[in-house]
Amino acid sequence: MLNIDFNKLIDQIFYDPKNPLLFNSGFFIYFFLIFIIFYYIFRKSYLDRAYILSFFSLYFFYKASGSFVWLVIASAVIDYWLTLLIYKSHTKKLQKKFLLILCIIFNLGLLFYFKYTNFFIEIINNFSLTKIDPVHILLPIGISFYTFENISYAVDVYKGEIKPEKNIVNYILFLSFFPKLVMGPIVRAKDFIPQLKNDYYVSAEDFSSGFYLIISGLIKKLIISDYITLNLVDYIFDGPQLHNGFECLIALYGYAIVIYCDFSGYSDAAIGISKWLGINIPSNFASPYQSVSLTEFWRRWHISLSSWLRDYLYISMGGNKKGKLRTNINLFLTMLIGGFWHGASWNFIIWGALHGFGLIINKFWTSIFGKFKFLPKPIVNLFYGVITFHFVCFCWIFFKADSLETSITFINQIINQFTLDGVEEFVINYKTPIIMIGIGYLIHMIPESWSVKYVSIQTKFPLVFHIIVAIAFILLYSYFKGTEAVMPIYLQF
């Protein structure tokens, strides 16, 4: 006889702060199954689809962050009305500019309050005789991402690049669209909202591509990244003083592939799910560690963020149109602010500053030596690629470490405590995580053209093939799954 614990079932419906809803949650399977049934039934009406998708997206956000769902709704409603007023003020330039500034202040004010209040309280306490008690503030999931989406929408309306959306449901959906809400990619209204009004159509190629992105993304995140994190990276970063330079260096290489597989894996899954819903979201990563310059790295890494910073911050400050000195200052400030966007920590500020200085040096070096060709291009690219990769890895130390002191200790171990003594024992003890690191880099090196060819071949396979692959992934995940859940890295941003 089937026994159903209804109390347990009801508990599953409500938000649990210890188990936020993410793509790797068991509850997500039931959530997505119920959602896709309703979505498909009402697929012929774009308004019905929008209402269903909005409802499920907001419920997803509720299951991921609880009462903060009201924050994204309130943010959407206020920005919706402000941008309508901006559009209607097209003949009143002063009023129009004032409304844009008000919209930006509102969005950045929310972000500042939730993300940076205690950081600045700490600074004030360090330089003042009076002491202010820290405020107990929980960071809403995804606030950094939908704040930038609100600002880009308002700026685009202000510049006349897009007309404001008339249906508020579509705008709420633009902000809350569940595949990208928690960790991006950062999408723009002018690219997203028009797709909601198209006829629902998912081709065989879209289905196959979506399936490939979902499975490969979850493999990167749940198997490779999580396993390396739990079994090597966290262990060494938590106490770098207990490990020699070689071990710290391996952990650093491990973290480089961990953050790539973690974030790009989640982004790929979001893009794949979107394809199944008839919505295209641009790729967010393009093999960034294959870059031969830091400039190229930022064209390949977290593309939605770097392009946002370029279009709405760097260019707004003058870009490269006000001389070399001003260009370098704008570049440095853009990266510094980009670092601070990631978190209220001196480590993130240092990380952004390092990348700012790195980009300036990169441009300076290219302007002097870029025209000279002393060696064959493959050798030159290999040389620059190795330098770029190791500079990025060096910066990751500050990104990963929990404090500036830990970062300095980690660097000191690599420089002053580097030894190959005990390498054999270390490799034996951490054999599987090291193999995982190698697999991660091999996956990273797969050319995009290979993926495209595979998807075109997979399109011809029957549905049973996809079911078998899905089952194989579940079995693989069950084998490597740790006892401790690993939250996505960018969940904190």
Q: Short summary of the structure?
A:
This protein is an all-alpha fold. It is 72% helix and 0% strand.
Describe the structure.
With 493 residues, the chain is mostly helical. Helices cover 72% and strands 0% of the residues. The chain has helices at residues 6-13, 26-41, 46-65, 69-88, 93-127, 143-159, 168-176, 178-181, 189-196, 204-237, 245-276, 294-300, 303-314, 323-342, 346-369, 377-400, 404-416, 423-429, 431-445, 448-458, 463-480. Helix 11 packs across helix 17, helix 13 (303-314) crosses helix 14 and helix 14 runs antiparallel to helix 15 (346-369). The protein is globular, with a radius of gyration of 24 Å.
Amount of beta strand: under 5%
The level of helicity is over 70%
Shape: globular
Radius of gyration: 24 Å
In oligomeric terms, what are we looking at? Answer: single chain
Low-confidence stretches: none
**What is the string of helix and strand elements?**
HHHHHHHHHHHHHHHHHHHHH
Number of strands: 0
- Give the terminus-to-terminus CA distance: 47 Å
What structural class do helix, strand and pairing data support?
mainly alpha
How many helices? The count is 21
